[in-house]
Amino acid sequence: MHAIKVRVARKWREADRVLGFELVDPDGAALPPFTAGAHVDVHLPGGLVRQYSLCNDWRDSSRYVIGVLLQEGGGSRAMHALEEGGLVTIGAPRNHFQLDTGARRSLLVAGGIGITPLLSMAECLNILDREFALHYCVRSAAAAAFAGRLREAPFAGRAHLHADDGPASQRLDLPALFAGAGADTHLYVCGPAGFIAMVAEAARAHGIAPERVHVEHFANGGVLADGAAFEVRLAGSGRTVAVPAGQSVVDCLAGHGVEIAVSCRQGVCGSCLTTVLAGEPDHRDCYLTDAERALGDRFLPCCSRSKTPLLVLDL
């Protein structure tokens, strides 16, 4: 993966437990272009790699802007520890959350820090003069990252903030939202897994087809909490390796000298996607669609396991 060295040009407090970062080329050169919904891999001390959505105007190649919520675990803490003016390595932008700019109408629904990719989407849809609405759900008004930017945006009238600590009248009413959406509406939702599931289910219940429901997970925790041991066979060499409970296929194979390119280690980015030649994967990722999972011919070894005693991999 192409590595890019960037400088932290600015670091600021965006909301409770959320810092904003502006990343630029150290020499002032243009950064690689990106599209609305894209993210970059940030390489942090200790070998950590984390994905953060780009939330600035996609037409501005002079900088990347990201927002980072402080959570348990090393990734966000390492990001928050970065110094303004310091250097950090990132990957080129990638987009697994593509915006359909030709849709008749789009609904953007964010939970918490899930607002970041939707900011760029909203700006894109506004510039293209498309019909859309943005709904942003937070636990408290103080936790609403980029709320000031939304208030000042040219599309402010189409951006709605829903805070749990606010009046009941301003809380998001999903049945009402989707009742008038229309079957041809495209939905984009990002946030915690439970939030995504709730919104997506409400959309489907109101007739929005699954292929029009687009989701972006920013975390996939607890994927190795259970699951029995199994074996993987490497088709290229015929070698068989035992994968114990509680250890990922990626880490197990690395311990046996077999390296698989991996990035997020959470089943989110798709970097380690591997072909399965035999056996039934136990999918625990947030990357593959239900249709892709049903095929059973690929899985993400950073988090997924096996429902059968043996998986044969194209390695």
Can you describe this structure?
Its cofactor is FMN. Keywords: 2Fe-2S, Flavoprotein, FMN, Iron, Iron-sulfur, Metal-binding, Oxidoreductase. The protein is of the alpha/beta class and 315 residues long. Helix content is 18%, strand content 31%. The strands form four sheets. Strands 4-3-6-1-2-5 form a six-stranded antiparallel sheet, with helices on one face. A five-stranded parallel sheet has the order 9-8-7-10-11, sandwiched between helices. A five-stranded mixed sheet has the order 13-12-18-14-16. The chain folds into three domains: 89 residues, Elongation Factor Tu (Ef-tu), domain 3, CATH 2.40.30; 113 residues, Nucleotide-binding domain of ferredoxin-NADP reductase (FNR) module (Rossmann fold, 3-Layer(aba) Sandwich), CATH 3.40.50.80; 84 residues, Ubiquitin-like (UB roll), CATH 3.10.20.
Q: Supply Rg.
A: 20 Å
What is the tally of beta strands? Answer: 18
Along the chain, the helix and strand elements come as EEEEEHEEHEHEHEHEEEHEEHEEE
The CATH homologous superfamily of the largest domain: Nucleotide-binding domain of ferredoxin-NADP reductase (FNR) module
Order of strands in the sheet with most strands: 4-3-6-1-2-5
- Helix segment count? 7
Shape by Cα distribution:
globular
CATH architecture of the largest domain: 3-Layer(aba) Sandwich
Domain 2Fe-2S ferredoxin-type: 230-315
Protein name: 2Fe-2S iron-sulfur cluster binding domain-containing protein
Domain FAD-binding FR-type: 1-100
Keywords: 2Fe-2S, Flavoprotein, FMN, Iron, Iron-sulfur, Metal-binding, Oxidoreductase
